[in-house]
Amino acid sequence: MSLNVLLVCGSGASSGFMAANMRKAAKKVGLDYKIQARSEAELNDYANDIDVLMVGPHLKSEFDALKSAVPENVTPILMEPDYYAILDGAAAIKHIQSEVQ
User: Residue by residue, what is the 3-state secondary structure of the chain?
Assistant: First the structure.
């Protein structure tokens, strides 16, 4: 299964590192995931081209608004603080797999 995943956080800095770690983790287990990180301000530019929206845990209060900004076929995921804080790409990939069937 090929997935386009967009990570959003406030500025895009921490999610950039997370996206890189997730790309490595996905490749290691043979998954065809295209993962990119952008700031939340850029979400509308990418909303129609993604399968999964991953939102940084620090944007929890804005999660509902971000969910409503993407089409219904996009799976929204609020990232867990425990793996996000340590930029654990493998844990984030597992989270995607648990949400997307």
Answer: CEEEEEEEECCCHHHHHHHHHHHHHHHHCCCEEEEEEEEHHHHHHHHHHCCEEEECHHHHHHHHHHHHCCCCCCEEEECCHHHHHCCCHHHHHHHHHHHCC
